[in-house]
Write a structure and sequence with these properties.
By secondary structure, the protein is α/β, with parallel strands linked by helices. The protein folds into two domains: 311 residues, P-loop containing nucleotide triphosphate hydrolases (Rossmann fold); 66 residues, Immunoglobulin-like. The chain has eleven helices and 15 strands. Strand 7, helix 9 and strand 8 form a beta-alpha-beta unit.
């Protein structure tokens, strides 16, 4: 059975690692076989849990990605070819090794390892401590973006390679990629698409962590819009470091008042999603006991491990496409059609949606952004030019 997957992200410094660790600790205490893993290159989960990777409590495992070993397993053929090609061009072995470490490789490897853990059948719950929001959005957009490029270029590329390989070897005196290298690229592509299927499935969701500050709240709103654009469900928001109300000196009373206004704004912005509140604690919660207590307080009276009740952001009908874009303004959204693809832009983010055959044969009859949903109507008459 597919495990429940919870991803935590937020602006850097809001405490998402602490919240992710507290959630994982609580899950294990409730009897769920739990794995907690990070896609953030600046690993701090072990620091929060005050332990080394491995089984850190009954039913709770902390995994830290071994990037070098995973690189070899997932795209060793690609790296070997690239190193060999750079050697043929005259670069020394050390320089070639450094150049072939792909940008963002650690984050991609973490996603592929997440897939392996989900397929193992060992876990009831996998908690993922993601990188700060900008990096997370780029990472989660990668599988579908790669799918578009691979779908367009790979079939053509295979045919071209067969024709030009003899000429390249004879004229340029360098080796062209063989079938093993191309196949390795295809395996990487398939792996990332399986990751996307897992993370957009019925048992996965994202939780946004924020602090009650105007700048952080604004970024969290944009993140909700962007995650929905890419098809990822957000099922809750966690407001961290909230000053408790009560008797206080004037300085703290002003903070309490300002935070209360922003919390009310957050509840309105993210409705109907629940906003869980974490009080500003007198000491940093470090270690399993402190994190477990924080988890109990964070999710008091709720089941944080139930399957998400949120509908998938993208729904396709016989003559309509409906995409959730909560918080998006009309001026931020743009729509374009290219063949059997619909290109949706929301602010700085863009998604290319491959239309099913029933909609691809029709033209766009109209589109409207209303109540946080982009509704695109299709009508008979052939695809748009």
């Amino acid at each position: 059975m597919t495990p429940r997957v919870l991803l935590f992200t937020g602006k850097g410094g809001v405490g998402k690692t602490t919240v992710a660790a507290a959630t994982a600790t609580l899950a294990a205490a409730r009897g769920l076989k739990t794995l907690v893993i990070s896609t953030d290159t600046a690993h701090s989960l072990a620091d929060a849990l005050a332990t080394e990777p491995g089984e850190i409590a009954p039913g709770l495992h902390l995994h830290q990605v071994d990037t070098q070993a995973s690189l070899e397993a997932h795209w060793g053929e690609l790296q070997d070819y690239a190193r060999g090609l750079l050697g043929e061009l005259g670069l020394d072995a050390i320089t070639a090794e450094e150049i072939t470490v792909l940008p963002g490789a650690e984050e991609v490897i973490a996603l592929l390892e997440l897939r392996e853990h989900a397929r193992s059948g060992r876990w009831d719950l996998i908690v993922v401590d993601c990188a700060p929001t900008a990096e997370t959005l780029r990472l989660l957009a990668l599988p579908e973006a790669l799918d578009w490029h691979v779908g367009k270029l790979l079939p053509v590329g295979r045919r071209i390679l067969k024709v030009v390989s003899p000429f390249v070897r004879g004229v340029a005196h360098v080796t062209t990629p063989g079938d093993d290298v191309v196949s390795a690229g295809e395996r990487l592509h398939r792996g990332l698409m399986e990751v996307r299927e897992l993370l957009t499935g019925d048992r996965a969701s994202v939780r946004l962590v924020l602090t009650p500050e105007a700048v952080v709240l604004a970024e969290a709103r944009r993140t909700l819009t962007s995650l929905s654009l890419y098809g990822y469900r957000v099922d809750a928001v966690v407001a961290n470091r909230v000053f408790p109300a009560g008797d206080a000196d004037p300085w703290r009373a002003r903070w309490v008042s300002a935070q209360a206004k922003l919390l009310a704004e957050a509840e309105e912005s993210f409705a109907p999603l629940p906003v869980h509140v974490v009080p500003y604690l007198p000491a940093e919660p470090v270690g399993a006991q402190a994190l477990g207590e924080l988890g109990e307080a964070l999710y008091a009276g709720t089941d944080p491990f139930a399957d998400p009740a949120v509908e998938p952001p993208l729904r396709l009908g016989a003559d309509e496409l409906r995409l959730a874009l909560p918080g998006a303004a009309k001026g931020d959204v743009d729509l374009a059609r290219k063949g059997d693809e619909l290109i949706v832009t929301a602010g700085p983010y863009r998604r290319i949606i491959a239309l099913p055959a029933a909609l691809a044969r029709r033209k766009i009859g109209g589109a409207v952004l209303e109540d946080g949903f982009l509704q695109v109507r299709f009508q008979a008459g052939g695809p748009d030019d």
